[in-house]
Specification:
The protein is an alpha+beta fold. About 30% of the residues lie in helices and about 30% in strands. Strands 3-4-5-6-7-8-9 form a seven-stranded mixed β-sheet, sandwiched between helices. It is globular, with a radius of gyration of 17 Å. The N and C termini lie far apart (about 40 Å).
Length: about 280
């Protein structure tokens, strides 16, 4: 049986994992998006050589740092789906927002999360083209760093603690640029929305965590690796993420092919409790 990674242990590994993610972020930028090799997967989503290069860096680094801990990564999930995920495992999305990457937008991210007993307890999200990295451990703190690509926290030159904000009377809403579904639209129609902020990738969780956005709903199925790191960072920053019915999300659902039925992410957990 693999050992349990507690939040306290995750905190001890955070700087090393940050450096691994920063190296993976650099790998996504090694080839210009306009000339990077790409193909269409069986589910009709795009994948590029940048996704694969980033995943190789992360999987190798985590296997070295956390031997014996299962790693579930998007581009190699079929080879790892039978792994033992109890009590802890690592979820990896090596390049979230491939469509944004191919369109030349700066919103794509690299995501790593530690999951223990079905709950994301630590997360790291890098936005390579923005030179930003967010990270957090549940029960600890969340922060945003500016990193030189491939470097670790010792080279961070702008390190700030971040905190989600209390919801105002009228809300700023993050919406998916590429995957806005009808159920999410219906949900938003019932909220007092002041402004919409369309954006690709898991970076929406980071805007929630740093108090720039109030709510991000996605009421259609998505994969665990798309959201685990964001859930951990937002929770560390004082926010909350629930299932569409308001219940707790569970991660490590191998039988469901690592799909969650949807979610609602709130900066203000008091709002999440009312929905």
């Amino acid at each position: 049986m693999t050992r349990e990674i507690t939040p306290q242990l995750a905190e001890q590994h955070l700087d090393t994992l940050t450096k691994i993610v920063a190296r993976a972020a650099a790998a996504t930028l090694a080839t210009p998006f306009s000339s990077v090799e790409r193909r269409i997967k069986d589910d009709l989503s795009p994948v590029t050589a940048a996704d694969e290069a980033s995943e190789a860096v992360i999987v190798e680094g985590i296997n070295r740092r956390l031997p014996g801990i299962a790693v579930i990564a998007e581009e190699s999930v079929d080879r790892a789906a039978a792994a033992n995920l109890h009590p802890s495992f690592v979820l990896v999305d090596p390049l979230d927002g491939t469509k944004e990457f191919l369109a030349g937008r700066d919103e794509f991210t690299v995501n790593v999360a530690i999951v223990t007993h079905g709950v994301p307890i630590a997360g790291i999200i890098a936005a390579p083209a923005q030179g930003l990295l967010w990270r957090g451990v549940v029960g600890g703190k969340a922060e945003r760093l500016r990193l030189r690509l491939g470097a670790g926290t010792a080279e961070a030159y702008d390190r700030q603690s971040i905190r989600a904000r209390s919801a105002p009377d009228r809300l700023i809403v993050a919406t998916s640029r590429s995957h806005l579904d009808a159920a999410s639209e219906d949900y938003l129609a019932r909220l007092p929305v002041a402004k919409r902020f369309p954006c690709g990738s898991s970076v929406k969780f980071c805007y929630l965590a740093q108090g720039e956005v109030d709510v991000y709903p996605r009421l259609a199925p998505t994969h665990e690796w798309d959201i685990a790191a964001g859930c951990a960072i937002l929770t560390a920053a004082g926010g909350a993420v629930t299932g569409p019915d308001g219940g707790t999300l569970q991660f490590g659902r191998q039988a469901e092919k690592f799909l969650v039925p949807g979610f609602i992410a709130w900066g203000d957990p008091a709002k999440a409790a009312k929905k």
